[in-house]
Amino acid sequence: MSVIDWLKLPETKEIKELDGVAVTRLHSGIILRKGFLRKIYLDSYKEFKKIQNNFGNVLLVELGSGGGFIKQVIPTVVTSDVVKVDNIDLCFSAESLPFQDNTVDGFFMLNVLHHIKKPKLFLRELSRSLKAEGKILMVEPANTLWSRFIYQKFHHEDFALKAGWDMDKQGRLSTANNALGWIIFVRDRKIFENEFPGLRIKKIELHTPLRYLISGGLSLRQFLPSWAYQPVKGLEYILSPLNRFIGMFMSVELKKD
Protein backbone atom coordinates (compact mmCIF):
# COMPACT_ATOMS: atom_id res chain seq x y z
CA MET A 1 0.00 0.00 0.00
CA SER A 2 1.36 3.43 -0.97
CA VAL A 3 1.51 6.38 1.43
CA ILE A 4 -1.22 8.14 -0.56
CA ASP A 5 -3.51 5.11 -0.28
CA TRP A 6 -2.89 4.98 3.47
CA LEU A 7 -3.78 8.67 3.82
CA LYS A 8 -7.03 8.42 1.85
CA LEU A 9 -10.31 9.00 3.66
CA PRO A 10 -12.07 5.62 4.07
CA GLU A 11 -15.21 6.81 2.29
CA THR A 12 -13.29 7.97 -0.79
CA LYS A 13 -11.74 4.53 -1.31
CA GLU A 14 -15.15 3.22 -2.35
CA ILE A 15 -15.71 5.75 -5.16
CA LYS A 16 -16.24 3.92 -8.44
CA GLU A 17 -17.66 6.71 -10.65
CA LEU A 18 -16.15 10.16 -10.06
CA ASP A 19 -18.79 11.92 -12.18
CA GLY A 20 -21.76 10.52 -10.24
CA VAL A 21 -24.08 12.69 -8.15
CA ALA A 22 -23.27 10.54 -5.10
CA VAL A 23 -19.70 11.86 -5.18
CA THR A 24 -20.93 15.45 -4.88
CA ARG A 25 -23.01 14.49 -1.85
CA LEU A 26 -19.97 12.78 -0.37
CA HIS A 27 -17.88 15.90 -0.97
CA SER A 28 -20.47 18.01 0.84
CA GLY A 29 -20.08 15.94 4.01
CA ILE A 30 -16.28 16.03 3.78
CA ILE A 31 -16.18 19.83 3.38
CA LEU A 32 -18.42 20.41 6.40
CA ARG A 33 -16.62 17.87 8.59
CA LYS A 34 -13.00 18.88 7.97
CA GLY A 35 -12.16 22.07 9.85
CA PHE A 36 -9.39 23.27 7.54
CA LEU A 37 -11.38 22.67 4.36
CA ARG A 38 -14.58 24.25 5.70
CA LYS A 39 -12.69 27.40 6.73
CA ILE A 40 -10.98 27.65 3.33
CA TYR A 41 -14.40 27.61 1.68
CA LEU A 42 -15.69 30.11 4.25
CA ASP A 43 -12.85 32.54 3.53
CA SER A 44 -13.61 32.35 -0.21
CA TYR A 45 -17.34 32.94 0.34
CA LYS A 46 -16.59 36.03 2.44
CA GLU A 47 -14.58 37.49 -0.44
CA PHE A 48 -17.54 37.00 -2.78
CA LYS A 49 -19.91 38.55 -0.24
CA LYS A 50 -18.01 41.85 -0.62
CA ILE A 51 -19.76 42.31 -3.99
CA GLN A 52 -23.08 42.34 -2.13
CA ASN A 53 -21.71 44.91 0.29
CA ASN A 54 -20.69 47.15 -2.62
CA PHE A 55 -23.93 46.92 -4.63
CA GLY A 56 -26.70 46.31 -2.07
CA ASN A 57 -29.67 44.41 -3.57
CA VAL A 58 -27.96 42.31 -6.24
CA LEU A 59 -28.21 39.09 -8.21
CA LEU A 60 -25.25 36.91 -7.27
CA VAL A 61 -24.71 33.48 -8.82
CA GLU A 62 -22.38 30.70 -7.78
CA LEU A 63 -21.45 28.35 -10.61
CA GLY A 64 -20.52 24.75 -9.84
CA SER A 65 -21.84 24.96 -6.29
CA GLY A 66 -21.53 21.18 -5.86
CA GLY A 67 -20.98 20.21 -2.24
CA GLY A 68 -20.39 23.75 -0.99
CA PHE A 69 -22.34 25.74 1.61
CA ILE A 70 -22.31 29.32 0.29
CA LYS A 71 -25.91 29.97 1.36
CA GLN A 72 -24.77 29.91 4.98
CA VAL A 73 -22.79 33.07 4.18
CA ILE A 74 -24.93 34.65 1.43
CA PRO A 75 -28.51 33.32 1.82
CA THR A 76 -29.76 35.15 -1.29
CA VAL A 77 -27.14 33.77 -3.69
CA VAL A 78 -28.38 31.60 -6.58
CA THR A 79 -26.57 28.27 -6.45
CA SER A 80 -26.13 26.15 -9.56
CA ASP A 81 -24.49 23.07 -11.01
CA VAL A 82 -24.59 20.90 -14.11
CA VAL A 83 -26.38 18.17 -12.10
CA LYS A 84 -29.21 18.46 -9.59
CA VAL A 85 -28.04 17.91 -6.04
CA ASP A 86 -29.28 19.07 -2.64
CA ASN A 87 -29.37 22.84 -2.04
CA ILE A 88 -28.91 23.65 -5.75
CA ASP A 89 -31.32 26.28 -7.10
CA LEU A 90 -30.67 25.86 -10.83
CA CYS A 91 -29.28 23.08 -13.00
CA PHE A 92 -27.73 24.04 -16.35
CA SER A 93 -24.65 23.80 -18.56
CA ALA A 94 -22.02 26.48 -18.07
CA GLU A 95 -21.98 26.95 -21.84
CA SER A 96 -25.64 28.06 -21.90
CA LEU A 97 -26.54 30.22 -18.92
CA PRO A 98 -30.27 30.75 -18.17
CA PHE A 99 -29.94 34.47 -17.40
CA GLN A 100 -31.11 37.38 -19.52
CA ASP A 101 -28.59 39.83 -20.92
CA ASN A 102 -27.08 42.32 -18.46
CA THR A 103 -28.89 40.99 -15.37
CA VAL A 104 -26.27 39.40 -13.09
CA ASP A 105 -24.16 41.50 -10.71
CA GLY A 106 -21.64 38.83 -9.83
CA PHE A 107 -20.55 35.28 -10.65
CA PHE A 108 -18.45 33.18 -8.29
CA MET A 109 -16.56 29.96 -9.04
CA LEU A 110 -14.47 27.92 -6.63
CA ASN A 111 -12.25 25.46 -8.56
CA VAL A 112 -14.76 25.22 -11.42
CA LEU A 113 -13.16 26.78 -14.51
CA HIS A 114 -10.64 23.96 -14.99
CA HIS A 115 -13.55 21.55 -15.54
CA ILE A 116 -15.22 23.66 -18.28
CA LYS A 117 -14.93 21.92 -21.66
CA LYS A 118 -15.49 24.97 -23.92
CA PRO A 119 -14.13 28.01 -22.03
CA LYS A 120 -14.71 30.52 -24.86
CA LEU A 121 -18.43 29.68 -25.01
CA PHE A 122 -18.55 29.91 -21.23
CA LEU A 123 -16.81 33.29 -21.06
CA ARG A 124 -19.10 34.69 -23.77
CA GLU A 125 -22.10 33.60 -21.71
CA LEU A 126 -20.66 35.23 -18.60
CA SER A 127 -20.03 38.48 -20.47
CA ARG A 128 -23.54 38.43 -21.97
CA SER A 129 -25.27 37.84 -18.65
CA LEU A 130 -23.22 40.23 -16.56
CA LYS A 131 -24.30 43.81 -15.89
CA ALA A 132 -21.96 46.67 -16.64
CA GLU A 133 -19.58 47.02 -13.66
CA GLY A 134 -20.48 43.44 -12.66
CA LYS A 135 -17.74 41.11 -11.47
CA ILE A 136 -16.57 37.53 -11.87
CA LEU A 137 -14.55 36.08 -9.01
CA MET A 138 -12.90 32.70 -9.37
CA VAL A 139 -10.36 30.63 -7.47
CA GLU A 140 -8.25 28.28 -9.59
CA PRO A 141 -5.01 26.30 -9.21
CA ALA A 142 -1.91 28.46 -9.68
CA ASN A 143 1.19 27.72 -11.72
CA THR A 144 4.23 28.10 -9.45
CA LEU A 145 7.28 25.97 -8.68
CA TRP A 146 5.53 24.51 -5.63
CA SER A 147 2.11 24.03 -7.20
CA ARG A 148 3.53 22.32 -10.31
CA PHE A 149 5.37 19.83 -8.11
CA ILE A 150 2.24 19.03 -6.09
CA TYR A 151 -0.28 18.94 -8.95
CA GLN A 152 1.90 16.97 -11.35
CA LYS A 153 3.22 14.46 -8.81
CA PHE A 154 0.34 13.93 -6.37
CA HIS A 155 -2.93 15.01 -7.97
CA HIS A 156 -5.19 12.85 -10.14
CA GLU A 157 -6.24 15.73 -12.44
CA ASP A 158 -4.10 16.87 -15.38
CA PHE A 159 -1.86 19.91 -15.09
CA ALA A 160 -1.05 20.41 -18.77
CA LEU A 161 0.72 23.74 -19.28
CA LYS A 162 1.01 23.39 -23.08
CA ALA A 163 -2.62 22.43 -23.69
CA GLY A 164 -5.21 24.51 -25.54
CA TRP A 165 -8.34 25.91 -23.96
CA ASP A 166 -10.83 23.21 -24.99
CA MET A 167 -11.10 19.69 -23.59
CA ASP A 168 -12.53 16.85 -25.66
CA LYS A 169 -13.61 14.47 -22.92
CA GLN A 170 -16.97 15.08 -21.25
CA GLY A 171 -16.60 13.84 -17.65
CA ARG A 172 -18.19 16.30 -15.21
CA LEU A 173 -15.43 15.98 -12.60
CA SER A 174 -13.09 13.43 -14.14
CA THR A 175 -12.20 15.71 -17.08
CA ALA A 176 -10.05 18.65 -16.00
CA ASN A 177 -6.89 20.62 -16.62
CA ASN A 178 -5.75 22.33 -13.43
CA ALA A 179 -3.57 24.68 -15.49
CA LEU A 180 -6.52 26.12 -17.44
CA GLY A 181 -6.89 29.31 -15.37
CA TRP A 182 -3.20 30.09 -15.81
CA ILE A 183 -3.39 29.26 -19.52
CA ILE A 184 -6.29 31.66 -20.19
CA PHE A 185 -5.41 34.59 -17.92
CA VAL A 186 -1.59 34.48 -17.87
CA ARG A 187 -0.11 32.49 -20.76
CA ASP A 188 -2.79 33.56 -23.26
CA ARG A 189 -3.73 36.86 -21.66
CA LYS A 190 -3.47 38.77 -24.97
CA ILE A 191 -5.77 36.25 -26.64
CA PHE A 192 -8.26 36.61 -23.80
CA GLU A 193 -8.17 40.40 -24.01
CA ASN A 194 -8.72 40.31 -27.79
CA GLU A 195 -11.54 37.76 -27.60
CA PHE A 196 -13.33 39.38 -24.66
CA PRO A 197 -12.66 43.13 -24.73
CA GLY A 198 -15.64 43.76 -22.42
CA LEU A 199 -14.11 41.70 -19.62
CA ARG A 200 -11.18 43.35 -17.89
CA ILE A 201 -8.75 41.46 -15.65
CA LYS A 202 -8.71 43.54 -12.48
CA LYS A 203 -6.62 41.27 -10.29
CA ILE A 204 -4.70 38.00 -10.24
CA GLU A 205 -3.51 37.08 -6.76
CA LEU A 206 -1.50 33.98 -5.81
CA HIS A 207 -2.11 32.51 -2.37
CA THR A 208 -2.68 29.49 -0.07
CA PRO A 209 0.59 27.53 -0.28
CA LEU A 210 -0.14 25.39 2.79
CA ARG A 211 -3.73 25.33 4.05
CA TYR A 212 -5.30 23.23 1.30
CA LEU A 213 -2.50 20.68 1.47
CA ILE A 214 -2.87 20.43 5.24
CA SER A 215 -6.63 20.02 4.84
CA GLY A 216 -6.09 16.90 2.75
CA GLY A 217 -8.58 18.23 0.20
CA LEU A 218 -11.54 16.08 -0.71
CA SER A 219 -9.75 12.74 -0.63
CA LEU A 220 -7.06 12.65 2.08
CA ARG A 221 -7.05 12.91 5.85
CA GLN A 222 -6.43 16.31 7.47
CA PHE A 223 -2.80 16.59 8.61
CA LEU A 224 -3.16 19.02 11.54
CA PRO A 225 -5.91 19.64 14.13
CA SER A 226 -8.49 22.25 13.13
CA TRP A 227 -7.36 24.72 15.81
CA ALA A 228 -4.12 25.15 13.82
CA TYR A 229 -5.95 26.85 10.94
CA GLN A 230 -5.38 30.44 12.08
CA PRO A 231 -1.69 29.91 12.96
CA VAL A 232 -1.10 28.34 9.54
CA LYS A 233 -2.99 31.20 7.88
CA GLY A 234 -0.74 33.61 9.79
CA LEU A 235 2.33 31.75 8.56
CA GLU A 236 1.03 32.03 5.00
CA TYR A 237 0.70 35.79 5.49
CA ILE A 238 4.35 35.96 6.54
CA LEU A 239 5.30 33.90 3.48
CA SER A 240 3.09 35.90 1.09
CA PRO A 241 6.03 37.73 -0.58
CA LEU A 242 7.03 34.28 -1.87
CA ASN A 243 3.62 33.38 -3.29
CA ARG A 244 4.83 33.73 -6.88
CA PHE A 245 6.98 30.67 -6.12
CA ILE A 246 4.85 28.75 -3.59
CA GLY A 247 1.20 29.78 -4.07
CA MET A 248 -1.06 26.79 -4.74
CA PHE A 249 -4.06 28.82 -5.90
CA MET A 250 -4.85 32.06 -7.66
CA SER A 251 -7.84 34.36 -7.32
CA VAL A 252 -8.89 36.02 -10.56
CA GLU A 253 -11.21 39.03 -10.60
CA LEU A 254 -12.81 40.12 -13.88
CA LYS A 255 -14.98 43.21 -14.34
CA LYS A 256 -17.33 44.02 -17.19
CA ASP A 257 -16.82 47.51 -18.60
Give a topology summary:
Elements: H1 3-7, H2 21-33, H3 35-55, E1 60-63, E2 78-81, E3 90-91, E4 104-110, H4 119-129, E5 130-141, H5 145-154, H6 180-187, H7 189-195, E6 199-207, H8 211-215, H9 229-239, H10 243-246, E7 249-256
Parallel strand pairs: 1-2, 1-4, 2-3, 4-5
Antiparallel strand pairs: 5-7, 6-7
What would you say this structure looks like, in words?
This protein has ten helices and seven strands. The mean pLDDT is 93. Helix 6 (180-187) packs across helix 7 (189-195). 38% of the residues are buried. Strand 4 (104-110), helix 4 and strand 5 (130-141) form a beta-alpha-beta unit. By secondary structure, the protein is of the alpha/beta class. The protein has a seven-stranded mixed beta sheet, with helices on both faces. It has helices spanning 3-7, 21-33, 35-55, 119-129, 145-154, 180-187, 189-195, 211-215, 229-239, 243-246; strands spanning 60-63, 78-81, 90-91, 104-110, 130-141, 199-207, 249-256. The protein has one domain (3-256): 3-Layer(aba) Sandwich (Rossmann fold), CATH 3.40.50. The radius of gyration is 18 Å and the shape is globular.
